[in-house]
Amino acid sequence: MKSVLITGANRGIGLEHVRSFAAKGIQVFATARSPSQADELNALAASCAGQITVLQYEALDPDSPTQLKTALGDTPLDLLLANAGAGSGTRESFGDVDVDDVVQLIRINAVAPLKLAEALAGNIARSERKLIAFQSSQLGSIGNNTSGGRYGYRISKAALNMVAKGVSSDLGSRGVIVVALHPGWVKTRMGGAGAPVSVEQCIEGQHRLFDKLTMADSGRFFNYDGTQLPW
Ligand SMILES: NC(=O)c1ccc[n+]([C@@H]2O[C@H](COP(=O)([O-])OP(=O)(O)OC[C@H]3O[C@@H](n4cnc5c(N)ncnc54)[C@H](OP(=O)(O)O)[C@@H]3O)[C@@H](O)[C@H]2O)c1
Q1: Number of C-beta neighbours around residue 83 at 10 A
Q2: pLDDT tens-place string over residues 186-201
Q3: Is the Cβ atom of 185 under 6 angstroms away from ligand 1?
């Protein structure tokens, strides 16, 4: 890979991906909602001499994907990692679901990544690796849902899984591999301190996966350890 774009790159899983790709000598376009406040990301970029470009991206802003496209021009992108995502809303339990919370999560976690893929499809198709990975969650798996609850987050990630499947069909003829990912339950602000998987373990597993995915894997859902998950 020569270049990647990662959203939600100012902290958590996204930031660690930036660190890891940059360490491999790959050109990284890293997005944050507020670049001027992305202190850790800016410090990392400053230490990498032009290898990391920080760009603004807000999932709730409909103009954000086209602004990214304008900033990139025709630059080929080997990987689009649509990683930015919002966690559970405040009212998610059966009997207390807040409609606005659910709609907001669907916009951030499913519709925004779709619009991003639409805007950047040409950059991906122009690259050698041609890979799009949507950072989903096992909580979006219908097949694995045995406990209910967390309706907003689950619905939004199930919708994202549908986006991944659909985009794999729409871009298949252009040679683009499209997958949905579960990063594990990871120690980040979203995953919490009690999560069993470190960001380093998650990133190592996802990088191994990025290296081995083929067209036969397109339209599938993968855990960070490379095992396939049910939709
Ligand atoms: N950690 C886990 O256990 C776990 C499990 C399953 C799936 N995931 C998924 O993995 C991805 C990364 O999660 P994480 O654990 O690294 O979480 P995190 O530390 O909370 O980071 C979330 C990232 O998404 C960005 N983001 C949130 N809302 C956004 C918006 N409206 N527009 C643009 N960016 C936005 C955040 O930016 P700000 O800093 O500006 O808020 C931040 O960069 C998410 O999609 C999450 O759903 C995580």
Answers
A1: 24
A2: 999 999 999 999 999 9
A3: yes
Please state whether the predicted TM-score (pTM) of the whole model is above 0.90.
yes
Q: Tell which residue, 38, 12, 20, 40, has the closest CA to residue 184.
A: 12
Residue 65 Cβ < 6 Å to ligand 1 = no
Query: What CATH fold (topology level) applies to the domain 3-223?
Result: Rossmann fold (3.40.50)
Q: Is the CB of 186 under 6 A from ligand 1?
A: yes
Place of tokens 């207390």: 96
What residues are paired with 81 via a beta bridge? 6, 133
Nearest to 152 by CA among 88, 81, 72: 88
Query: Which residue is associated with the tokens 């660190």?
Result: 19
39 CA to middle of ligand 1, Å?
A: 16
**Which residue of 34, 61, 190, 206 sits with most ligand 1 atoms within 8 Å of its CB, as the best mutation to test the pocket?**
190
Task: State pLDDT tens for residues 63-78.
Answer: 999 999 999 999 999 9
Distance CA 41, CA 19 (A): 9
How far does the centroid of ligand 1 lie from the alpha carbon of residue 228, in Å?
22
Provide the residue ranges of all domains of the chain, joining segments of one domain with +.
3-223
For residue 101, CA distances in Å to 60, 93, 116, 142 come to 13, 12, 22, 20
